[in-house]
C-alpha cells in the first residue's frame, strides 16, 4: 500500500473513532448504529478483554490498565489538551511553509488570524473558572436561576460539597466540585463547561470550525491550481468526460508532490464536519435554552412520561416558600407554573410528603405540555451564555402564558431528541 493510501486510511479511522466516541452518547443518537458502535467499542469490547484477562492472569493486567484509565478519565490532567494542541501545531507546521509563498498578502493576514484564534480561545476556555461553586459565592449562585421544580427541586444537598445544590448546577466527579449551570466536563479543555466559560467554549468550537474549513478549502484551491497547470481539464468535482480512475490518478499526482500539505488538508476536511456538527449542536442547545446535562435529564423524563410515571400539579405564583431553600431570583423573568415529578410505581406522589403546589396530581404524557423556564428565546439565551449577570430587556418579563404563545414550550422546538 502506498504512503498516501495509508495516511488516508489512518485519518479516516481516527475521524471515525472520534465521531463515535463523541456522538455515541448523545441522547439524539441513542437508538442509532452510532450508539451501538459506541457500546461495542467502549463497553462490550473492554468487557471481553476483561473476561479474557480474568481467566488468564486473574485480572492483573486489567487492574493496572484500569488504574491508568481512571487517572486519564477521572482525574484532571492535560493529556488530551496537549494532544489537541499537538495535532493543530503539527498540521500547521506541515501545511503553512508549503502554502506561504503561494498566497497573497491579504490571504496571509487571514491565515495568521485563523491559525491564532483557536489557541487563544483554547487558553481562555481552559484557564477560565467554569463556575466553581464555593461557600463564598454559594448565595450568588443560588440567586442566579430559579428552581424549575421539574429538573431542579429545592432542598437537595451535594453530598461532597455539603451545600444546597443551586438550580442548574451539577457536581462534576472529575473536577470534584459543583459547577454553576453545568453543561458537561470536556477533556479537550481539561475542565468543565459551565456558567463561567461556556462562551469561550463556543468560540473555541467556532474558531476551530473556521480553521478546519478554511484550511481545507485553501489546500484544495492550491491543489486544484497546481493540477490544472499540467492538466487544464481537471476540476475538484470529477468532470463528466474524465474517468474516475484518471481523476484519482491526477489527484494522487497532485498530492504526491506535496504529501505533507495534502495530509493536513485531508485531516482538515475530514474533521471539519465533525467540529461543525458539535458547534451546531452546542448552538442548538443554547437556542433551546438548555444544557447538555439538562437535555439528558429531559430525555429521561420523556421516557418516564411515555411510560406514565410523570405527574404534575400547579404551583401558585404567590405560594409561600422557604427562602433559605429557595431564594428569590429577581434577575430571571420566568418562574415555574407546575411541579413535575416522576414516581417509581406510576402512582401519583404521596400527599403526605408535603410537596409544593396544590390540587390533584395529573399525568404528564408529553413534553409538549411542559414549559422550559430557562428558555427565554435564542438571543436572550445567547446573552445569558456570554454575559455574567445578564439582564433581560423589556418584554422578557411578560407573563409566562404570553411567552408560551411565542413558542417557548419544550417540544415546539423539538428541543429534546426523540
Ligand atoms: Zn458538589
Ligand atoms: Zn468537570
From TrEMBL:
Subcellular location per the Swiss-Prot or TrEMBL entry: Membrane
Entry's Gene Ontology molecular function annotations: protein-cysteine S-palmitoyltransferase activity
EC number: 2.3.1.225
Membrane association type: Multi-pass membrane protein
Alphabetic keyword roster: Acyltransferase, Lipoprotein, Membrane, Palmitate, Transferase, Transmembrane, Transmembrane helix
Keyword Iron: no
Top-rank lineage group of the source organism: Eukaryota
Reactions that this protein is recorded to catalyse: L-cysteinyl-[protein] + hexadecanoyl-CoA = S-hexadecanoyl-L-cysteinyl-[protein] + CoA
Broad class of enzyme this protein falls into: transferase
Main location, first listed in the record: membrane
Cross-referenced Pfam families: DHHC
GO BP term (any one): protein targeting to membrane
Domain Palmitoyltransferase DHHC: 155-298
Region (Disordered): 396-418
Any one annotated GO CC term: endoplasmic reticulum
TM region positions: 6-24, 36-57, 77-96, 108-125, 200-223, 266-287
Family note: Belongs to the DHHC palmitoyltransferase family.
Domain notes: The DHHC domain is required for palmitoyltransferase activity.
Protein name: Palmitoyltransferase
Amino acid at each position: 500500500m502506498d504512503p498516501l493510501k495509508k495516511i488516508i486510511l489512518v485519518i479516516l479511522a481516527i475521524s471515525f473513532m472520534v465521531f463515535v466516541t463523541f456522538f455515541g452518547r448523545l441522547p439524539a443518537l441513542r437508538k442509532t448504529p452510532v450508539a451501538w458502535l459506541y457500546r461495542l467499542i467502549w463497553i462490550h469490547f473492554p468487557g471481553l478483554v476483561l473476561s479474557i484477562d480474568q481467566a488468564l492472569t486473574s485480572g492483573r493486567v486489567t487492574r493496572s490498565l484500569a488504574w491508568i484509565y481512571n487517572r486519564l478519565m477521572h482525574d484532571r490532567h492535560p493529556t488530551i489538551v496537549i494532544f489537541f494542541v499537538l495535532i493543530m501545531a503539527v498540521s500547521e507546521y506541515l501545511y503553512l511553509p508549503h502554502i506561504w509563498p503561494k498566497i497573497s498578502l491579504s490571504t496571509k493576514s487571514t491565515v495568521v488570524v485563523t491559525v491564532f484564534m483557536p489557541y487563544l480561545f483554547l487558553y481562555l476556555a481552559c484557564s477560565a473558572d467554569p463556575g466553581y461553586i464555593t461557600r463564598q459565592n454559594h448565595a450568588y449562585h443560588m440567586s442566579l436561576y430559579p428552581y424549575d421544580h421539574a429538573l431542579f427541586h429545592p432542598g437537595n444537598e451535594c453530598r461532597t460539597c455539603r451545600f444546597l445544590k443551586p438550580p442548574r448546577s451539577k457536581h462534576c466527579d472529575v473536577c470534584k466540585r459543583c459547577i454553576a449551570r453545568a453543561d458537561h466536563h470536556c477533556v479537550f479543555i481539561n475542565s468543565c463547561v459551565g456558567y463561567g466559560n461556556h462562551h469561550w467554549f463556543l468560540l473555541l468550537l467556532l474558531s476551530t470550525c473556521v480553521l478546519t474549513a478554511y484550511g481545507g478549502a485553501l489546500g484544495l484551491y492550491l491543489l486544484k491550481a497546481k493540477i490544472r497547470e499540467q492538466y487544464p481539464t481537471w476540476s475538484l468535482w470529477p468532470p463528466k468526460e474524465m474517468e474516475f480512475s484518471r481523476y484519482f490518478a491526477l489527484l494522487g499526482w497532485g498530492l504526491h508532490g506535496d504529501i505533507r500539505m495534502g495530509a493536513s488538508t485531508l485531516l482538515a476536511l475530514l474533521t471539519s464536519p465533525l467540529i461543525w456538527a458539535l458547534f451546531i449542536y452546542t448552538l442548538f442547545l443554547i437556542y433551546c435554552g438548555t444544557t447538555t446535562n439538562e437535555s439528558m435529564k429531559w430525555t429521561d423524563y420523556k421516557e418516564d412520561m411515555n411510560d406514565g410515571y410523570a405527574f404534575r400539579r400547579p404551583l401558585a405564583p404567590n405560594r409561600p416558600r422557604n427562602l433559605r431553600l429557595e431564594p428569590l431570583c429577581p434577575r430571571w423573568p420566568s418562574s415555574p407554573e407546575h411541579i413535575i415529578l416522576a414516581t417509581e410505581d406510576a402512582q401519583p406522589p404521596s400527599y403526605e410528603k408535603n410537596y409544593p403546589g396544590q390540587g390533584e396530581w395529573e399525568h404528564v404524557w408529553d413534553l409538549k405540555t411542559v414549559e422550559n423556564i430557562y428558555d427565554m428565546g435564542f438571543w436572550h439565551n445567547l446573552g445569558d451564555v456570554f454575559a455574567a449577570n445578564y439582564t433581560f430587556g423589556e418584554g422578557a418579563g411578560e407573563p409566562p402564558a404570553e411567552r408560551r404563545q411565542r413558542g417557548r414550550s419544550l417540544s415546539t422546538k423539538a428541543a429534546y431528541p426523540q
